[in-house]
Design a protein that fits this description.
By secondary structure, the protein is α+β, with helices and mostly antiparallel strands. It has helices at about 5-20, 135-140, 150-160, 165-170, 180-190, 205-225, 235-240, 270-275, and strands at about 25-30, 50-55, 60-65, 70-75, 80-85, 100-105, 110-115, 125-130, 260, 265-270. Strand 9 and strand 10 (about 265-270) form a beta hairpin. Helix 1 runs parallel beside helix 6 and helix 5 (about 180-190) packs across helix 6 (about 205-225).
Length: about 290
């Protein structure tokens, strides 16, 4: 799933290609992708894209300096955005392929992007709204961890009285916007902290270490992704991860074998030596603790 660094990089990539250009056509292909009907997608046609930004894991396209509709996109687990300079201008045919939506600029002819989604779980979501806050997922977002206002004290306040395990807290978009399964693993490894630690039980030193790991991990990932083309971002994310998705490989810090805990619809990876005092975590595959 694209998380904060990849969506941030996508926004930067698209800013240079779309701002100042007019929307020519917006063509939904998959019935499931569009989550709103008022205003209609056609309301974007003829509007000038004036900004492309990020809200958590959402891409947000602003038209006419906010006087026109906004297009908000959540790529979910299997979604991706593919930019091309030579897309077909004829409407795509609905079918069983991965294409979910196509947007073409009025000029240059053929320039635009396809939204695609792999797999059978169709969760990619597109919203055409008058205000980004009209999107329920955006309205409930917690603070952005890269915002200058997201201080160590603000982070500590979010954890006060929080009785859940820290892995689940970091992934909760209503607490912190933009962090998902992969980067929460990376942050906890950098902080040398168990994913099962209870947030409310963290010491002041733990909170400071976790805050620093959160900021540094995300900032480094954003910097690595900056300037990359959309098609290169998935590969950069995978090569930049130190523990997530690397079960069975040696930990890059201590050399111990990276372990995995599987759940009903996800998994986490960690280093026992670095994070849990050498003690392996219980692997209950049907657990719902981190959902």
């Amino acid at each position: 799933m694209p998380e904060l660094p990849e969506v941030e990089a996508l926004a930067g990539f698209l800013t240079g290609r779309m701002t100042g250009h007019t929307v020519g056509r917006v063509m939904p292909v998959a019935v499931s992708v569009l989550k709103t009907y008022d205003p209609p997608l056609d309301a974007l046609v003829g509007r000038t894209v004036t900004a492309v930004g990020r809200r958590g894991k959402f891409l947000v396209f602003t038209t006419d300096d906010g006087d026109g509709p906004h297009l908000a996109v959540h790529l979910a687990r299997g979604g991706w955005l593919r930019w091309k300079d030579d897309l077909p201008t004829l409407p795509p045919r609905p079918g069983k392929g991965p294409l979910a939506l196509r947007l073409l600029l009025a000029e240059p002819e053929g320039a635009g992007f396809d939204l695609t989604e792999a797999g059978t779980q169709k969760r990619l979501a597109v919203y055409c709204v008058r205000d980004p806050q009209d999107v329920p997922g955006i309205a409930r977002l917690g603070p952005d961890p890269l915002d200058p206002a997201f201080t160590r004290e603000a982070f500590a306040a979010l954890l006060t009285g929080e009785r859940r395990r820290i892995k689940g807290v970091l992934r909760d978009q209503g607490v912190i916007a933009g962090v998902g399964n992969a980067y929460s693993d990376e942050v906890l490894h950098a902080a040398k902290m168990s994913p099962y630690a209870l947030a409310a039980n963290l010491s002041d030193e733990d909170v400071s270490r976790l805050y620093q790991a959160l900021r540094t991990t995300l900032e480094d990932a954003v910097e690595r992704s900056r300037g990359l083309a959309a098609g290169e971002l998935k590969g950069e994310k995978k090569t930049g991860l130190r523990v997530h998705g690397r079960a069975g490989e040696p930990c890059p810090v201590c050399g111990d074998t990276i372990r995995e805990v599987s759940f009903s619809d996800s998994s986490l990876q960690y280093c026992a030596t670095c994070q849990t005092g050498g003690k392996p975590l219980a692997d209950r595959r049907m657990s719902r603790l981190l959902k």
